[in-house]
Amino acid sequence: MRIARFSIDGNVAFGAVEGEAPPGSTEGLVLNIIKGIPFADFELSGTRVPLDKVRLLPPVLPNKVVAIGRNYAEHVAELGNALVDDQGRPDAPVAFFKPSTSVTGPGDPIEYPSFSQEVHYEAELAVVIGRMCREVPRERVADVILGYTCANDVTARDVQKREKQWARAKGFDSACPLGPWVETDIDLARAADLTIQCTVNGEQRQLGRTADMIRPIEDLIVHITEAMTLLPGDVVLTGTPAGVGPLNVGDEVAVTIEGIGTLTNKVIKRG
């Protein structure tokens, strides 16, 4: 099931996306409005509205977004980082937060921050948590996942290089586009081998597969929940393939993930 969050006539609701449309299009899609919320038992109301008559919102409002850096070997290499420490031991996953205020939805603008001159796109598979969980054993990871969506881990690369912490570089307003919806019919086995693509103004910039992750989704959830409780609606970003690069004001950036859909945003000057 594809679960979208949307607004219409000033009201916000969840709906199940029904129908098929060409990639990147919403033509012919309708929303079957959900009675309740997707993190508990719910019913489909049978009331349908055309998707092109509503405004799609971020599919969830996470309490926190936990992101994993350096999870694709070729991306690690392109930024000049190492996969092992100075003693030859594999580095632990690099985890960081993107605040809830950085989250924005499909079609919403990415506001180019005034404190940066080098903003990059990073296409990523996002895991949406469906239930409160802590210290999740590897064999139970599937039980805590609601589904998956597309993400863009927008990064002020010059600030990331200059500052020891990544909070400003990756946490500025609009730095975490999510959407267009949550796909719940993807299991862990399929999520482990999906195509991820990023285009800028229609030109392909990134093309990779989740099969190239250094650490799979199960390991990431175990690692994160050893330290903290994840809540329903929290989001885990799983890393980006190689090919990251700059965005400029006026660019349209699109993240497409096999079996999920396309997340498109335009870059504007921060007002």
TrEMBL record:
Pfam family membership, one: Rv2993c-like_N
InterPro entries: Fumarylacetoacetase-like_C, Fumarylacetoacetase_C_sf, Rv2993c-like_N
Residues of the Rv2993c-like N-terminal domain: 1-59
Keywords associated with the record: Isomerase, Metal-binding
Domain of life: Bacteria
Domain Fumarylacetoacetase-like C-terminal: 64-267
Molecular-function annotations in GO: isomerase activity
Name listed for the protein in its UniProt record: 2-hydroxyhepta-2,4-diene-1,7-dioate isomerase
Organism: Streptomyces lasiicapitis
